[in-house]
Structure formats: C-alpha cells, structure tokens
Specification:
Layout (H helix, E strand, L loop, with lengths): L1 H32 L2 E8 L11 E4 L2 E11 L7 E8 L9 E6 L6 E6 L25 H7 L1 H18 L2 H23 L1 H107 L2 H4 L13
Parallel strand pairs: 2-6
Antiparallel strand pairs: 1-4, 2-3, 3-4, 5-6
Length: 316
C-alpha cells in the first residue's frame, strides 16, 4: 500500500514538472514571438528549393525564417509564403522580395531589399490577415520565365550556324583565307616599297603644310597691302567716277542745248546745201564743155559756128 502511494506521489510530481515546463515553453514562445513580425509574400512562380524554416535575409543580413508555404486557394497561380522577421528589420515602402538560390545546393532563401530611406513601414493588411511584401523576379525566376525564348533563340542560332558552316561556305572561307595569306605575303615582299611610299607621303604632307603656311602668310601680306594701298586707290577711283559722272551730266546738258540748232540745221540748211551741190555740179559740167571746145577749136570756137566740111564733086 505504501509502495503504491509513493508511485502516485512521484507521478504527480513528474506531471506537475512537465506542466510547468510546458507553460514555461509557451511563455518563452510568446515572449520571443512578440519581437517578430509576420508578412505574406505571393509568388507567381516556382518556389522550388524553398521550405519551411528557410532563411529570410534583408540585404544579405539574416533577419527571419519561413513559417508556411501553401497554394493560395483564391488563385492557384500564386504561392503564399508567410515569413517571420525581426521587428527591427526595416521593412519599409519599396521593399521587395525575391527567391535566391544558395550556391549549388538546391536550397533557396528569401531576399528582402529595396527599402526607401525615410519611407513609412509596410503595414497594409493583406487578404491573409498580415501585411504583404511585393515581389520582383529574381535571377532564377527571370531565367525560368525567359527559358522558352532563350531556347528558341538558341535553336535559330544553331540553324544559322549550320547554314554558315555548310560545305560550300567552308570552301569559300578556305578560299578567302588563302587569298588573305597570299595578300599578306605580297605585302611582306613589298614592305620596303611601302615604307618608301609612306616616307614620300610624309614628305609631301610636310611640304603641303609648309605651302599652306606660306599661302597663309601671303594672304596676310595681301590683306595688309590692300588695307594700306587699296584704300587710297579706291578713294581716287571714287573721285574719278564722280568727275566722269559730272562730265556726262555736262555733255547731256550741252546736247540738250544744241538739239534745237541741230534740228534747224537738218530741216533748213541741209536742203540748201544739197541745192548748192547740184548747182556746182551743173557749173562744173558747163566749164568742162567750154574747156573741151577750147581744146578742139581754139578761141574762135567760142564765138563762131563750126565750119562745114568742103565737098568735091566727082568727075569735074
């Protein structure tokens, strides 16, 4: 009877200690949970490598862990990941979440970054009853989302390389390489000639530069000469033009004054001069006739009539 009573007492003490330990553990859990904040993250991509208890870091600093991973029943395209982070973690407006692989182990973690300095914390309650941190595609997510396009481009590149490296193109490339080799040999053989040509070209360029410099000096001298001697010449030329203009004006005035006299001369004097010329021509003809008579018959020819010729009768 006493032995059974001892067992009951020991059992009671043990149960009391276990109850006290459970209460203490719950108290510690509640005490530790008060310094952490829960957030939901909705990923529209695979969360492969992520598990309950996976690390959550903020800019590379460990700040919490994953509490729960489940499909979102309202939209199966999304995966809801609930995390717990330390209350002092600056989860401010602008903070985003990405899934980042850890080395080649296949294990992933959640990376938080992008908080804006001075911005308020994320406190808007989401559909899960806790604030929601927006996501952005990580390197792995971008690679997986762009994988079909990348494979298509790789296929196209492979096809083009196959066409490029066809037998015909390979023969053409071999011919091009042969020609390049021949050209390189020819250039090597003509190296001295090319060097001499380059030297002559350098000399020609220097001479051209000297000539350009001399032309510049000549242009400067010409400008000085025009400035010093051209201006007096221009002044004299201007005076000459002014004098010529004055002379032309005077000549125009003289012609205007003489125009009435020229009209009278052309209307009156010219006809009288014509009549005088005709009279002189008649007088000249008369004098010519008198001179002819004097030559033929002497002075008598002017006062008497010409003698008739004597006629003799035949047979008497």
């Amino acid at each position: 009877m006493e032995t059974r009573s001892n067992h009951v007492l020991v059992g009671s003490v043990v149960l009391g200690l276990l109850a006290a330990l459970a209460i203490f553990t719950v108290w510690l859990a509640q005490l530790g949970g008060g310094s952490e904040t829960k957030y939901d993250i909705f990923f529209k991509q695979s969360v492969d490598g992520l598990a309950k208890g996976s690390s959550v870091s903020f800019s590379g600093v460990p700040s919490g862990q994953v509490d729960e991973i489940a499909l979102w029943p309202r939209d199966p395209e999304f995966v809801r990941v609930r995390i717990r982070v330390k209350s002092e973690t600056p989860v401010l407006q602008g903070t985003t979440a990405t899934i980042q692989g850890v080395g080649f182990t296949g294990v992933s973690q959640i990376m938080l970054d992008g908080a804006v300095k001075g911005a308020p914390p994320i406190t808007d309650i989401g559909p899960g009853g806790v604030p929601v941190i927006p996501t952005k595609p990580g390197a792995l997510g971008e690679l997986l989302s762009n994988a079909p396009q990348l494979l298509e481009r790789l296929t196209t590149l492979t096809e083009r390389l196959t066409l490029l490296l066809s037998d015909r193109n390979q023969a053409s490339i071999a011919g091009i390489l042969d020609n390049v080799e021949k050209l390189s040999g020819s250039l090597a053989e003509r190296g001295p000639e090319i060097a001499a040509t380059l030297a002559q070209t350098r000399i020609a360029i220097e001479q051209a530069g000297n000539a350009a410099e001399e032309i510049g000096k000549l242009a400067g001298t010409t400008n000085d000469l025009l400035d010093k001697e051209g201006r007096p010449l221009m002044a004299d030329l201007r005076k000459t033009v002014a004098s010529a203009k004055a002379s032309m004006d005077t000549l125009d005035a003289a012609i205007g004054d003489a125009r009435p006299g020229l009209q009278a001369f052309s209307k009156q004097t010219v006809p009288e001069v014509g009549q005088l010329v005709r009279d002189l021509r008649d007088m000249s003809e008369a004098l010519t006739a008198v001179a002819t008579r004097l030559d033929r018959g002497g002075a008598g020819a002017l006062v008497g009539s010409p003698k008739l010729p004597d006629y003799k009768k035949k047979g008497k």
